[in-house]
Structure formats: structure tokens, C-alpha cells
């Protein structure tokens, strides 16, 4: 068994979820997370004050997969989440014993 954790853009969540279900992955856990990676910081004006938004909103999806499902799951995530821009997300695969 493997634990696959992926962090994706929130706007890509419906596509990623649909791709996972098509790949046979039905059990997932979702979390809203904030992070900072390769994206540029966003500077906005709010009520006359300059606000630096260092962290970007993301969605973390976690799923446990048996060995035959690992590669199809990764390919499903890649095909649905990739936009070609910096900040598309990450995929982590870890062994899962219990």
C-alpha cells in the first residue's frame, strides 16, 4: 500500500476528483491548505493599505492505494492538475504499512 498526497490548485479540484474516480480511486480525503512555493507573491490593495499575500490557497488530497493503482493514480492527477504554470502542485508517494 502507498499513501499518495497531492497538493493542487483549488480551481483544478473538480477535474482532479473526476480523473481520480475514472482511474478507480474512490476513497479520498480533502484539506484546505496554504503554502508558498515557486509562485510570485501577490501584492494587493485593501482599504488603502498594501497587503502582501505570501501564501496561496491550495487543496491537499490524500488517498491510500494498492500497488497496481499507484501509477494510474499519479497519471490521473498529472493529466487533470497540470496547467503548465508555476504552482500547479506536488505529488508525494509514501509507503503505508498500517
UniProtKB/TrEMBL annotation:
Domain of life, per lineage: Bacteria
Organism of this sequence: Candidatus Segetimicrobium genomatis
InterPro entries, alphabetized: N-reg_PII, N-reg_PII-like_a/b, N-reg_PII/ATP_PRibTrfase_C, N-reg_PII_CS
An example Gene Ontology molecular-function term: enzyme regulator activity
Signal peptide bounds: none
Any Gene Ontology CC annotation: cytosol
GO aspect biological process, one term: regulation of nitrogen utilization
Species lineage: Bacteria, Bacillati, Candidatus Sysuimicrobiota, Candidatus Sysuimicrobiia, Candidatus Sysuimicrobiales
Name of the protein this chain belongs to: P-II family nitrogen regulator
Family to which the UniProt record says this protein belongs: Belongs to the P(II) protein family.
SUPFAM superfamilies on file: GlnB-like
Amino acid at each position: 500500500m502507498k499513501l499518495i498526497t497531492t497538493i493542487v490548485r483549488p480551481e483544478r479540484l473538480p477535474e482532479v476528483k473526476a480523473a481520480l474516480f475514472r482511474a478507480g480511486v474512490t476513497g479520498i480525503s480533502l484539506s484546505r491548505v496554504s503554502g508558498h512555493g515557486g509562485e510570485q507573491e501577490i501584492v494587493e490593495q485593501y482599504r488603502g493599505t498594501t497587503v502582501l499575500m505570501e501564501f496561496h490557497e491550495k487543496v491537499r488530497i490524500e488517498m491510500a492505494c494498492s500497488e497496481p493503482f499507484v501509477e494510474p493514480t499519479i497519471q490521473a492527477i498529472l493529466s487533470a492538475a497540470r496547467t503548465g504554470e508555476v504552482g500547479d502542485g506536488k505529488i508525494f508517494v509514501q509507503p503505508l504499512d498500517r
